[in-house]
């Protein structure tokens, strides 16, 4: 039976196939260390598992849940946005809890895009924007992000291109994979650009609490809700990637359209998970301080790893990764394969994130200091 045409354009996710190879190498007895992926290894706040345990003791919790999530969860999200981003959202109708922000990329695309509509995507950027765009038979149009421009889009030159078919633009700041932090001016310019060109703007914002003193939401910009939505997630902020809790925020009209899709695709989030999510969102700000202390210590070793590979990096970046620039002429995938086959270290080549990722590698901070130190030792030995 032939598979659907839409699948012909979408390859298996790089990590899905590469990690199969990594598992195979491990099975062969190779001492592989994986510093490729961004799944936090640390535990969520203690209150999260307590809330889940308490929930499990209750009766009548095993049924379908509301499509919009518990009112209490939406209120917790609204309070979190108010407290940490100084953004007011109406918990009644401007928030929709999601099973991770990744599913939000699909739901938003299904809610707003028709076949053939164009979508502006960052290069480099999170590969899911591309695959989802292709899956729903819309057309990816990449905009360049360059180091010399702090990995910000050049909106002036973008405005000179034909944007008449563009319906949606994805941005993600703090940016993955580069760690570039947003400024208020950038968000203002993006909102103005979206308004002028009648484009729906979505900021995918899962990293704003990781190694970042100044969490910013695009919804903080005056009038942003008219054109912008924001995706957020508990995956990185509270080490809950496997719990699958995210959210989308925006105008009640836009949220209603997303709900129209989502309510036809799943039947609510398990009660206990929602209770755990509420506990996480209510964490004391000290949580972020302690978490970031750990990532800071890890990052110092990750920087040393980058230096050992003769790479440059920006020490003022946010998020779970060190984005390291290889010496001139060294290709990302060749370097990544070489480190995998000679040093048994798996890290992400920059090209996974688009052609502008050529010449870069990405080192994850989701492993312990000891493991990063072991990687460093392996590379130091390699040098002598
Ligand atoms: C930029 C970006 N957006 C979204 C996601 C997905 O996060 P979630 O676990 O909330 O689905 C990731 C995960 O790596 C990411 O890097």
Number of strands: 13
The topology string of helices and strands comes to HHEHHEHEHEHEHEEEHHHEEHEEEH
Major sheet attributes: 7 strands, mixed
Which structural class is indicated by helix and strand composition? alpha/beta
In the predicted model, the low-confidence regions spanning at least 5 consecutive residues are none
Q: Specify Rg, calculated over alpha carbons.
A: 21 Å
Look at the structure and give the mean pLDDT.
96
Largest sheet, order of strands side by side?
Answer: 2-8-7-6-5-3-4
Number of helices: 13
Q: Tell me the span between the first and last alpha carbons.
A: 55 Å
Q: What is the 3D form? A: globular
| Range of strand content | 5-15%
Helix content bin? 40-55%
Report the bound ligands by name, code or SMILES. Answer: pyridoxal-5'-phosphate
Explain this structure.
- This protein is α/β, with parallel strands linked by helices and 384 residues long.
- 41% of the residues lie in helices and 14% in strands.
- The mean pLDDT is 96.
- The site of pyridoxal-5'-phosphate has 13 residues, from helix 5.
């Amino acid at each position: 039976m032939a598979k659907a045409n839409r699948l012909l354009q979408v390859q298996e996710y790089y990590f899905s196939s590469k990690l199969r190879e990594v598992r195979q190498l491990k099975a062969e007895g190779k001492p592989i260390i994986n510093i490729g992926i961004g799944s936090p290894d640390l535990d969520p706040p203690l209150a999260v598992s307590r809330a889940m345990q308490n929930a499990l003791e209750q009766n009548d919790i095993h049924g379908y849940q509301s499509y919009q999530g518990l009112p209490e969860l939406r209120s917790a999200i609204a309070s979190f946005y108010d407290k940490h981003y100084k953004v007011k959202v109406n918990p009644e109708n401007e928030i929709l809890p999601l099973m991770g922000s990744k599913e939000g990329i699909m739901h938003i695309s299904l809610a707003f895009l028709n076949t053939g509509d164009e979508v502006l995507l960052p290069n480099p950027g999170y590969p899911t924007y591309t695959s989802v765009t292709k899956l729903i038979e819309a057309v990816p149009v990449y905009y360049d992000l360059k180091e010399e421009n702090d990995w910000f889009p050049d909106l002036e030159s973008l405005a000179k291109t034909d944007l008449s078919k563009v319906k949606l633009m994805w941005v993600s700041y703090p940016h993955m994979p580069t760690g570039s932090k947003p400024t208020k001016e950038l968000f203002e310019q993006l909102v103005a650009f979206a308004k002028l060109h009648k484009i729906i703007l979505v900021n995918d914002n899962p990293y704003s609490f990781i190694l970042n003193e100044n969490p910013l939401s695009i919804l903080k910009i005056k009038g942003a809700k008219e054109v912008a939505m924001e995706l957020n997630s508990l995956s990185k902020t509270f080490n809950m990637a496997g719990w699958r809790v995210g959210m989308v925020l925006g105008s009640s009209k836009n949220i209603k359209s997303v709900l129209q899709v989502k309510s036809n695709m799943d039947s609510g989030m398990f009660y206990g998970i929602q209770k755990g999510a509420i506990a996480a969102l209510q964490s004391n700000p000290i949580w972020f301080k302690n978490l970031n202390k750990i990532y800071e210590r890890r990052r110092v070793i990750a920087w040393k790893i980058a230096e050992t590979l003769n790479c440059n990096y920006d020490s003022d970046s946010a998020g779970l990764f060190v984005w390291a620039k290889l010496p001139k002429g060294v290709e990302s995938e060749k370097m990544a394969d070489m480190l995998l086959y000679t040093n048994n270290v798996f890290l992400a080549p920059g090209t996974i994130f688009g052609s502008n990722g050529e010449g870069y590698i990405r080192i994850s901070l989701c492993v312990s200091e000891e493991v990063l130190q072991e990687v460093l030792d392996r590379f130091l030995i390699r040098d002598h």
